[in-house]
Amino acid sequence: MPIKKSSPRKRSRPASGKKKIATPRPGPAAPWILHRSQGLQLLQLAPFRKLPWLVQGFSTRAGGVSTLDGNKVLNLSFMDWDTRENVMKNRKLLQSAAGASDLNLIPLKQIHSDVIHTVSSSSTEPRNGDASVTNQPGILLAVQTADCVPILLVDPKKRALAAIHAGWRGTLARIAQKAVGRLQMEFGSKPGDLLAALGPSIGPCCYEVGAELVTKFTVQFADGDDYFDEARSGEEPNPLQWLNMAPPGHQPPPKNVHLDLRKANRSQLIAAGLQPKNIFVSDLCTACRTDLLFSYRREGPQSGRLLSIIGIANSD
Question: Which of 45, 148, 247, 296 has the greatest number of beta carbons closer than 10 A?
């Protein structure tokens, strides 16, 4: 099909002395809310806000005391470009903005695994793993991300919680599904009662991965093909090599594909017994929205880290 050339657009010159005003980027779609407090912007889920005993939220980039590219940002992980003092101050700012200053923040030492910890008041030291669960007040579970999928689970009846970090390795290992199982085992939660919030992560628009991951996912999941824009493993026969007579070893590498981590984790939660109507997925892409979020894929080692938090408020 021939490409139609659009007519050249006339550029309007701004009036002298007037500054050009940037077009504001769209905010989150309902039922997500951008809660502004103490100079920070905290992404929260409206159904979670209906639970008065629940403290929750997904951090964003703005505010904080860290300096990145000449701007003040809310970096919440210990990075080479930032100081430990700044990170600790940022974490206190986040807790204050979320109304969780009196809760004990328990982040994980994440290792891209399916390791899940049960956290109690007597086990508050950070441990290696990628998910944690609790039913005790005063504990603030947390996971760090800068593209991976942060998942917060809530059982409104049993008052039990989970915080999950799901990169492609954790997703492949079914960490979200296993976290639901841990809530069942530890606290008697029923999957049908659970609410799930999948926070900002890299979208399928930007998450390019090697074609070999198609095979890894389709072996593990019946609907694995649906997680990719093209379900190719890179091992399919290439008819071009017979046409160009290129010798073995001289073929171009297989084309990369785009992976939808959100869809993969949502599918896992449904398979674990959650009701689709109780699963809420943010459509904010970290790589597209570096004005609001951090993205390692887009920014590299100079990116900061977001923190997703959930806890049970201390009783009065």
Answer: 148
Torsions phi, psi of 18, nearest 5?
A: -105, 135
- 191 neighbors 157 (Cβ within 8 angstroms): no
User: Which of 87, 121, 101, 116 lies closest to 38 in space, CA to CA?
Assistant: 101
Bridge partners of 106, per DSSP, are: 141
Pairing label, strands 54-59, 306-312: antiparallel
Three-state DSSP class for residue 133: strand
Q: Please report where in the chains the tokens 């609410």 appear, as a residue.
A: 195
The domains found in the chain, sorted by start residue, are: 32-201+277-312 (3.60.140.10)
CA-CA distances (angstroms) from residue 189 to 54, 131, 159, 287? 17, 17, 9, 35
Would you say 177 and 191 are in contact if contact means Cβ atoms under 8 Å apart?
no
Sign of the CA dihedral running 102, 104, 110, 116: negative
Concatenating the DSSP letter of every residue in 22-64 gives PPPPP-PPTTEEEEEETTEEEEEEHHHHT-TTEEEEEE-SEEE
Is 65:86 a contact under the CB 8 Å cutoff? yes
Q: Which of 57, 47, 53, 152 is nearest to 97 (CA)?
A: 57
Please, what is the end-to-end C-alpha distance for the chain in angstroms? 68
Mean pLDDT in consecutive groups of 10 residues from the start of the chain, 316 residues: 46 48 76 96 98 98 95 97 98 98 96 97 87 97 98 98 98 98 98 98 97 95 94 52 54 80 98 98 97 97 97 87
Determine which helix (DSSP H) or strand (DSSP E) holds 282, and give its type and residue range.
Answer: none
Interatomic CA distance for residues 221 and 23, integer angstroms = 42
CA 119 to chain centroid, in Å, comes to 21
